[in-house]
Amino acid sequence: MSQRINNILVLGMGKVGSLVATLLKESGFNVIGVDQHHRDDLSVKVQAADLSDVAGLAALMKGKEAVVSCLPYHLNLGVVDAAFKAGVHYFDLTEDVPTTKAIQKIADKAKGVMAPQCGLAPGFIGIVGANLAKQFQKLRCIELRVGALPQHPKGLMGYAFNWSPDGVVNEYLNDCEVIQGGKLKTIPSMQELETIVINGLKLEAFTTSGGLGTMCETYAGKVSELNYKTMRYPGHCELMRFFFHELLMRDDRKLAGEILINAKPPVNDDVVYVHAAVEGRKNDRLSREEFVRAYPPLTIAGQEWRAISWTTAASIVAVVEMVNNGKLPSKGFIKQEEIDLDAFLSTRTGGLYKQFETDRDVRHAA
Fold first, then answer.
1. Is 205 helix (H, G, I), strand (E, B) or coil?
2. CATH number at residue 79
3. Nearest to 192 by CA among 213, 169, 175, 215
4. Same domain for 134 and 116
5. Are 281 and 320 part of one and the same domain?
6. Alpha-carbon torsion 120, 123, 127, 132, what sign?
7. How far apart are CA 130 and CA 239, in angstroms?
8. Same domain for 72 and 38
């Protein structure tokens, strides 16, 4: 599939999907949005459809060159099947490991690209981490950290569910792929608690599922330590362990998500912290390189968007742009860590990240 992308279908017009559609339109693509309900409050046309109907989705893909899924992870395999049969490019935001592994199995036979995990984590954080890693002759460790937090936290949990509660519950309860001691392992989530200080702000970080995407596969045999952790305000992890394990809410994920979103609804004043650090030998000396940024809300197309929304949406749109302009392959599976950071930031949408290029003072303690 070598033709340029002109017509794109965006599935799911929620907080992120609506911005994805807006950014794609601003980048010159013809965009049709699809949601469970008709909407007329966006700059793109939106039609209503059953998003679980694979045959119906396949029909909607006729005449399109690409589909972008901004749906809950459990719906993505149906979209993948429809995209594969329609021969169109596929992009999504999933952090769900089984979904990605299923996509990898069919990607070699796809007529277009299969690019899951194009969000923030997995996604942008992997691009950043790989960009740091390629500066080293020999790698010792790759540490990737992301935190999407309220700027003005209230209560002991110090959190607001600006992201999908289902996605957060999934990340907190599913096991995590890591490399430890040079060996690929699977470890529990909400473990290995550590402290990170960013510009004087004390945060904690702990293991969560999915943030590495396919990096363990890519860096197997090349690095001694590779891990991803979520950053939160201090005390959050202990409370989540109590909620999920002592109160047994792990046994009812749907109810757990409902309770959490009711207790900590979304806020507009959020901030996304990104911290990637790589250690190894460079020029025959042991060295450590860091990338640390704080991304606040941003005004796009005359509307202010939450930090978690625009960082996620901008990441996937930048990847679409790179496929369209030939900076990425036109077919097969795309790993986020194979994407060049400079090329990513040079796209129209990836350039949004460049407004916040000042490094932060970071101190890290086990």
1. strand
2. 3.40.50.720
3. 175
4. no
5. no
6. positive
7. 33
8. yes
CB of 156 within 8 A of CB of 264? no
Judgement on whether residues 141 and 227 belong to the same structural domain of the protein:
yes
306 belongs to a structural domain: no
HSE-up of residue 186 (Cα within 13 Å, Cβ side): 5
Note whether 293 and 2 are within 8 A (CB): no
Same domain, 209 and 191: yes
Query: 14 in a domain, yes or no?
Result: yes
Whether 224 and 284 share a structural domain: yes
Residue range of the domain that includes 188: 124-301+359-365
pLDDT tens digits for 63-100?
999 999 999 888 999 999 999 999 999 999 998 889 99
The residue type at 161: F
Within a domain: 1 = no
Please name the residues in contact with 104: beta carbons below 8 A apart, sequence gap of 6 or more: 114, 214, 333
Q: Identify the burial level of 111 via C-beta atoms within 10 angstroms of its C-beta, where 0-12 means exposed, 13-18 middle and 19 or more buried.
A: middle
Shortest CA distance to 147 belongs to which of 312, 273, 233, 21?
273
CA distance readout (Å), 78 to 34, 35, 54, 330: 15, 15, 6, 22
Q: How far apart are CA 45 and CA 4, in angstroms?
A: 21
Note the pLDDT tens digit of each residue in 223-277: 999 999 999 999 999 999 999 999 999 999 999 999 999 999 999 999 999 999 9
209: enclosing H helix or E strand: none
